[in-house]
Design goal:
Layout: H1 2-40, H2 45-79, H3 118-161, E1 198-201, E2 204-210, E3 215-224, E4 232-234, E5 242-245, E6 255-263, E7 270-280, E8 286-296
Parallel strand pairs: 2-8
Antiparallel strand pairs: 1-3, 3-6, 4-7, 5-6, 7-8
Helix pairs in contact: 1-2, 1-3, 2-3
Length: about 300
């Protein structure tokens, strides 16, 4: 009979809806388990609390699916034909109508279109709710991943900025610019060795203002007060701009002239100050020190 065919179709649709509800329930439970694992390993309490709130929302959705499932079972029971034995009908909280109560069958509309059944409405509502819930979960999980990335970036940046404390920098002596007269600067004492028998005069000379590309020459007098002749070695300057012309050998009690030239082409611009050490060839003992100053422009 037509009524029996319609009832069977409704039962099949209800079974399909039951399967869909079970599938959604399984999906929600999988998401809840995943969020529980994320909450257990969350890097902050705030993020763990947010995961717990999401789990609570999923539990509410599962309860909603249970209510939808119960409502569908009740509706299917009410739409079964009256000839179905009561022992074969599905159970529900409220008792089914008595056998003598007629079941109203929906009438076919005049425009020959089948009316929209309640099971389809429930399925559409459930699908829409599922889409919204899944979209919310994806957005929240994505936001959590971004927050974790930002937190890791801050931790890496702050840990990289932690450097060892800088060692104190010794103050640098500032030498005043030479005046019109030659400045008098004390000459440092020899670094090593006993009191030297070699003297140099003057111990400091100002070569004046030297234009870039030109040179200036000054002489120093050397006196060997020792009892042996010595051959002198003169250390190179830091600027590599000083040239020397010392005597080959300085006899005992003898005197000699040391000529020093400042090469303005190689000298750096500004105030030039060089302390030059003189030692005896074959030894490392410093026997005399003289100083050269100039203004290179």
């Amino acid at each position: 009979m037509p009524g029996d065919d319609w009832s069977e179709r409704e039962i099949d649709r209800g079974a399909a809806l039951d399967r869909e509800v079970d599938r959604l329930r399984g999906v929600y439970r999988d998401h809840a388990e995943t969020l529980s694992k994320l909450a257990a390993s969350a890097p902050s309490k705030q993020l763990a609390r947010r995961y717990q709130e999401m789990i609570a929302e999923i539990n509410k959705a599962i309860v909603g699916l249970d209510e939808v499932d119960l409502d569908v079972i009740t509706r299917k029971s009410s739409e079964l034909p009256a000839q179905l034995p009561e022992s074969e009908r599905p159970t529900r909280e409220k008792p089914l109508p008595a056998p003598g109560v007629p079941i109203i069958t929906p009438q076919k509309p005049a425009n020959d279109e089948r009316p929209i059944l309640s099971s389809y409405t429930v399925a559409a509502t459930t699908a829409e709710s599922e889409d919204r819930t899944l979209l919310r979960i994806v957005m929240i999980v994505g936001l959590a991943v971004v927050m974790i990335g930002v937190l890791a970036l801050f931790v890496w940046k702050f840990s990289g900025e932690r450097a060892a404390p800088a060692e104190p920098v010794a103050p640098t002596a500032v030498t005043p610019s030479p005046a019109a007269e030659e400045p008098v600067t004390p000459v440092p004492e020899p670094k090593t060795g006993p009191v030297s028998s070699l003297t140099i005069s003057p111990q400091q000379q100002y070569f004046g203002t030297i234009a870039k590309g030109t040179s200036a020459v000054r002489t120093f007098e050397l006196v060997n007060r020792g009892k042996k002749a010595v051959t002198l070695e003169i250390a190179r300057s830091r600027c590599r701009c000083l040239w020397y012309d010392p005597p080959a050998t300085l006899p005992a009690g003898g005197r000699g002239t040391l000529t020093v030239r400042v090469d303005g082409a190689k000298a750096p611009e500004g105030l030039l100050t060089e302390s030059i050490e003189i030692s005896v060839k074959g030894t490392t003992d410093v026997v005399a020190v003289f100083e050269v100053t100039a203004e290179v422009k």
